[in-house]
Amino acid sequence: MTVPEPAGEPDLSIPSSARIYDFFLGGGHNFAADRALAERIVELVPAARETAVANRAFLGRAVRACLDRGCRQFLDLGSGIPTVEPVHEIAHRHDPSARVVYVDSDPVAVAVGRDLLDGNESATITAADLTDPDAVLSAPGVAGLLDPAEPTAVLAVAALHYVGDDELVARLLDRYCSAFGPGSMLVFSHGSADVDDPAAVSGTEDLQRLARDSGHPLVVRDRATLRRLTARVDPLEPGLVDIGRWRPGEPGPGPVLGVYGLVGTVRDQSR
Ligand SMILES: C[S@@+](CC[C@H](N)C(=O)[O-])C[C@H]1O[C@@H](n2cnc3c(N)ncnc32)[C@H](O)[C@@H]1O
């Protein structure tokens, strides 16, 4: 399903996950309702802001790993608002010819993204529902920029915990990973149901209840399930681990944040 362009102004009294996340990252594209819900989230999960920042930092390290392995195209599913170290800025620092397509269903994220990317010929944002890969992959902003024959990094970062059905998640990952040339990669992060550190997951049930009540049900999954759902890829070292421990920038083991992350190469199904 292509997400319809909003007929009028979006209702800013309804909080949005894209804008709450922007608030946690210190961005400027959020409104009173988003900030109020963000404050309630922090009451339940005091590390929520730190986790959002760490997730964005994981995304940056993962994008650089994909660039190092030769990916010059990026399809960022559930991208949020492309500010605060967004994928195109990271990619273009490394290679100005890299092409980046953002996809999000939040009308404000898309409207802000269009303004930010106006005149940028190598990055676009498309309003679409990531659970409809045919619509996403055929959307003009996607098909017009990404060459399906080229190796492409598919990013599903902190986005698939909004999809409740495990088998749908597996099918979506399979479809997106199969849509591009040899050498394609997957970057994935997802809320955890089984982190060893109880402090990292305290408040998770309250957070899920709050997310459900505010219209954005959130599913957490355990490591075994997430590895099964991402079986289409061969993970780079260190595998599917907490994002704080996926090649942490600083020396030492890195914090446990209650979110799993993985970067993998898409397995060639013909082998
Ligand atoms: C927590 S933010 C993550 C942003 C970014 N991927 C990151 O990790 O930095 C989740 C984003 O997924 C988007 N989203 C949720 N469900 C979606 C769907 N079915 N289709 C497209 N976007 C979706 C939300 O609008 C939001 O912007």
TrEMBL record:
Family annotation (InterPro entries): SAM-dependent_MTases_sf, SAM_dep_MeTrfase_SAV2177_type
UniProt-listed Pfam families: Methyltransf_19
UniProt KW keywords: Methyltransferase, Transferase
Signal peptide: none
Listed GO biological process terms: methylation
Keyword Nucleotide-binding: no
GO molecular function: methyltransferase activity
Protein name: S-adenosyl methyltransferase
